[in-house]
Design a protein that fits this description.
- The protein folds into two domains: about 1-105, Rossmann fold (3-Layer(aba) Sandwich); about 115-275, tm_1862 like domain (pyruvate-formate lyase- activating enzyme, Alpha-Beta Horseshoe).
- It is about 40% helix and about 15% strand.
- It has helices spanning about 1-15, 40-55, 70-80, 95-100, 140-145, 150-165, 180-185, 190-195, 220-225, 240-250, 255-265, 285-295; strands at about 30-35, 65-70, 85-90, 120-125, 125-130, 145-150, 170, 205, 230-235, 270-275.
- Strands 4-7-8-9-10 form a five-stranded parallel beta sheet. It has a three-stranded parallel beta sheet with strand order 1-2-3. The protein has a two-stranded antiparallel ribbon with strand order 5-6.
- The two termini are about 25 Å apart.
- It binds iron/sulfur cluster.
- Iron/sulfur cluster binds near residues 130 and 174.
């Protein structure tokens, strides 16, 4: 969503008329921003590309471009399988995509993206990429190493969102709790939260995608100290069995997980904890199998 919002903003800066939604009428060019993470999202991406490839074959649209994670990861296969697409772009090729529209990439527009969510909330990306090696996850392959955004840039973006009427900010990254390690040599999520909580007019801050291993525990103190930081944490645990956690390369044990949750509940007694649990985990190279399974649906 945030990446699409950025694409739209950059294109609009070149005075192009751009919308962010699925539609078949009155468009001459379509950009499909794809996901390559979970199976359902991959399939939705492929179905959407095929839908517009069909429209292009019928002459209903002139150009079709594909970007995002699926495109980054499977570019070569997709090019062969869906020749109707004019060009595929990887996750770090936004300037090349914009060049197709004769629009120059403008870094300074990063904090001014067009908000496509309902007006009272917006996502705020604090970092990109991931340094973990979870056995089931291809995100590091598609998004590269973790890169934290400078704290002052994030705070400025939050202020800009509040000025535009946003009441709730949802903090996101591939891995929220790693924030700062690359840039400041220590985990800085707690400090960042303190700065964000002090932004005037910001009603709610909500934390998503908090990896549990080496969790910066001061976050819970900050959470209980500032009323505008929601007592809510989205922390994917994935499993509770030590052997499976080890095979998943999650770098945490069941005892450490329980200790972290106890600590969190002690500091923030009414904490709402959202999690995901992975079932059917197999240690194997699923990437190529998944790829061929998707393409064979054509
Ligand atoms: S921490 Fe999250 S994004 Fe990073 S490899 Fe693990 S599951 Fe993937």
């Amino acid at each position: 969503m945030v990446d699409s919002e950025n694409i739209v903003t950059q294109l609009r800066s070149g005075h192009l008329e751009v919308d962010h939604q699925l539609m078949d009428d009155d468009v001459n060019t379509v950009i499909v921003n794809t996901c390559g993470f979970i199976e359902a999202a991959k399939q939705e991406s492929i179905d959407t590309i095929l839908h517009y490839a069909d429209l292009k074959s019928k002459g209903s649209i002139e150009k079709l471009f594909v970007t995002g994670c699926l495109s980054h990861r499977y570019k070569d296969d997709l090019q062969k399988e869906i020749p109707e697409v004019d060009a595929f772009f990887g996750t770090m090729e936004l300037p090349a995509l914009l060049a197709r529209f004769e629009v120059n990439y403008q870094h300074e527009l990063l904090g001014e993206r067009s908000i496509m969510t309902p007006p009272h909330y917006a996502y705020l990306k604090i970092a990109e990429g991931c340094n973990r090696t979870c056995a089931f996850c291809a995100i590091p392959l598609m998004r590269g190493d973790h890169r934290s955004r400078p704290m002052e840039m994030i705070v400025e973006e939050a202020k800009s969102l509040v000025r535009r009427g946003v009441k709730e900010i949802l903090l996101i990254a591939q891995e929220l709790t790693y924030y700062g390690l690359d840039l400041y040599r220590s985990r800085k999520l707690g400090t960042l939260l303190e700065h964000l909580a002090s932004v005037e007019g910001l009603g709610w801050i909500r934390l998503h995608y908090a990896y549990p291993s080496k969790f910066p525990r001061e976050v819970f103190e900050v959470m209980s100290a500032y009323p505008n930081i929601c007592n809510y944490l989205d922390m994917p645990l994935q499993h509770a069995d030590d052997g499976v956690l080890h095979r998943m390369k999650r770098q945490i044990t069941q005892a450490e997980t329980l200790d972290l949750i106890s600590y969190a509940r002690e500091k923030v007694p009414n904490l709402a904890l959202r999690t995901t649990m992975l079932v059917g985990f197999l240690v194997r190279q699923i990437a190529s199998l998944t790829n061929s399974a998707i393409l064979s649906n054509r």
